[in-house]
Amino acid sequence: MAKERLDKILAAQTAFSRKEVKELVRRGIVQVDGRKVLSPEEKVDAACQKIVLDGKPLGYKKFVYLMLNKPQGVVSATRDRETKTVLDLVPEQYSHRELFPAGRLDKDTVGFLLLTDDGNFAHDILSPRHHIPKTYLATVDGPITQELMEAFHQGLPIGGEDRCSPAEITVLNDGEHPTAEVVIYEGMYHQIKRMFQRFGLTVLTLKRIKMGGLKLDPALSLGECRELTPEELLQLKNGSKGTV
Ligand code: URA
What we know:
Blueprint: E1 4-5, H1 6-13, H2 18-26, E2 30-32, E3 35-36, E4 43-44, E5 51-53, E6 56-57, E7 65-70, E8 100-101, E9 110-116, H3 119-126, E10 134-140, H4 146-154, E11 156-159, E12 162-164, E13 168-173, E14 179-184, H5 191-197, E15 203-211, E16 214-215, E17 225-227, H6 230-238
Parallel strand pairs: 9-15
Antiparallel strand pairs: 1-4, 2-3, 2-5, 5-6, 7-9, 7-17, 8-9, 10-14, 10-15, 11-12, 13-14, 15-16
Helix pairs in contact: 1-2
């Protein structure tokens, strides 16, 4: 990993602001490899140098994993010339990380999106071979028929060359605009919208509420994100209800 300013590293890995960190360094309570460092600008490699703050070693995280509650109107990309991206929602403290969205939600889809800088992990959870379930709430503009549910359960063609493997669907409310919970195991382009479209239905709202065995944290408002704990990472990967 490249060297970075000591104050930047400390601000990213502690609850202190950049300003507070500078003050702490100048007070002489930060050591790097056993040497007191008084200059917040000093460049340090946090991956291989030992940083100690007030006697306590700094926990270096090789990768970060953020759960974002994606709002409507932002794109699941790292950059876009016209539209705000999910990375624009990530707090400044992660700006030195090369985060990217693991998978994508459409611009108008809300809910659980994982942001990480761990390419292997992202590959694993997205690979159709690993069958990580993704659970959505979909509200549609007409009745959900028995025929539709059977087709979802069996797998169906959704246009072009694409054919979805078996999915699960549970109707949660059956009004004029029914809502269903849908679980899919792949991530094809506009997959859920195209599955309903096959039966002449338009998806009015779509929210991802769970990935693997990990639910979207209800405490996260739209546009907010937070780091996952190691246990949550396992839940995400395992897909079963929190069992490890
Ligand atoms: N299926 C869709 O149609 N859109 C999404 O954003 C996710 C799944």
